[in-house]
Amino acid sequence: MEKKNRFSILLERLMGTVNLKNATLAAELQYDVSYISKWINGKTLPSEKSVAQILHVISDYIVESATSAALKTLYIEYQVDVPEDLKQAIYDNLEAEYFYVKGLTKTIGADIAPETQNYAKLTLYQFLKKMSHPALRQVKSLNVIAAIDLLNMEHDVRLQIAQIDTASQILQRDFPEVHFSLLINFDIGEKDYIYDCIFIINMLTNYTHINFKIYNCIHSYDKIVFCAKDAYCITSMLLGGNLCYQVTISEDKKMCKTVYQRLATLCTREELMFRKCTMRNLLQGSDYISQMLSENLCWLLGHMTEHFLPEELHKELLEYLDISDAEREKMQNIHLLVEEVLKKSHVRILLYETALSQFAISGELDFYNNKILLDTRQREQCLSYIQNIIHEENAMELRIIHGHFVMDFQFNANPSLFLSNNLCYLRLDSKNIQNNVTLLNINIAKKMFRCFFEEIWSHSEEDVVISDWRKIESILKHMKQSVALLKKVDKEI
């Protein structure tokens, strides 16, 4: 009897879920029924040149022919809630299993994967290709732990591993049962604070839709270990930056469990780099206020926030929020405190010019982690307030960042970073609002991001980091003129 492969097992299970018969699917595909039987029995695979069309027909027909009970089962399994998303998810799942089995046919001459494969040496790109396993397409429940010497790798490899170039394509819905713990060696020799911090920020932003955690781990040095619980693991020593030695790939559950458990012991609270929080928690407790009253305040603003609003406009915008009167009063009092801090405390602020231009055009404001669109009148009020601040004699210092420091992320949204002696946190810019606040949890993270801020603040090129208040005033004046033009057009329309 022919042993079934991963593709045949998945196809049979999907067809069984919707009670789809071989003959019915054969008629839909206009294939002889014997082909369907061979696919399900693991004797052969669909032709590679026509597989895309075949899998689209299969995924479409499975969804369209499913009963309401079967659809409910499939929606839960694939964590989607509309038919078109379900069709795409099933197609992706079938495609992943197909090419995994196809790859085994080409590399080891068999459709059936041995439980363990060993390679004396692979290039890093060959390793990464084998690291991509169909199990990672599961979204109902997935537990992954990886120990990767990520900061010791070339930039393009980092991007490929973190999937920063493709993560923005992911449907931005929450997957609470997908857990990914990443162990990185942050005790590296030569540090590139600007690139490393921006890279980490983009990783955190791209994975706000899952339970993603980063840990400091010196044991990750010169290693790549990747394990999906109860599914597969791949391990290697990394030498010379781009060569992997003693590569072991296994689907043996006992081995995967052992590797997973060993890595899990390294995921300790003491080494957790960042901790998720909510803006509501910051406001309800004393953290938001504590950060404002702390010494050594440094803010990096990638988008416009509630900090630069005149008192009356802030009060007006509070009416947009679905909160109690008591909460509204508390937040208004907090804002009055912020105004005093900006006037009397030494706050160093780096503001991206793109944050101003995007605000001038769209009016989008990050208002305590709520996206609010301001009209042109409100935008003018906000920009005028910033102008007034820089004209007043106070201890605040404002510099504007023109352009990007890292070209790899020039099209990615800039985050906001708040540093102080008491509390340090990131406000990320993604659609998953509840996961957008990330606290810097341990000293190594705080030190790393403090060095990141200082390097930008003291950047030697004046045309990149603008500190001349006359140039800053010119930029603000231009933004106000842009809003005035938009206001005029709005009236004419």
Give keywords:
493 residues, 3 domains, single chain, eight-stranded mixed sheet, alpha+beta, seven-stranded mixed sheet, Endonuclease, Chain A
How would you describe what is shown here?
It is a single chain. With 493 residues, the chain is α+β, with helices and mostly antiparallel strands. It has three domains: 6-108, no CATH class; 116-272, Endonuclease, Chain A, CATH 3.30.870; 276-492, no CATH class. 46% of the residues lie in helices and 19% in strands. The protein has an eight-stranded mixed beta sheet with strand order 8-16-15-14-9-10-13-17. It has a seven-stranded mixed beta sheet with strand order 1-7-6-5-2-3-4. Strands 11-12 form a two-stranded antiparallel ribbon. β6 and β7 (243-250) form a beta hairpin. α1 (6-17) runs antiparallel to α6 (83-108), α15 runs parallel beside α18 and α16 (376-391) packs antiparallel against α18 (469-492). The model is unreliable at 165-171 (pLDDT under 50).
Shape: globular
**Percent range for β-strand residues:** 15-25%
Largest sheet: 8 strands, mixed
Strand order across the biggest sheet? 8-16-15-14-9-10-13-17
What is the residue-averaged pLDDT?
88
Report the strand count.
Answer: 17
Query: Roughly how many Å apart are the termini?
Result: 74 Å
Radius of gyration (Å): 27 Å
Helix % is: 40-55%
Strand pairing plus helix content: what structural class? Answer: alpha+beta
Low-confidence stretches: 165-171
The helix count comes to 18
Give the domain tally: 3
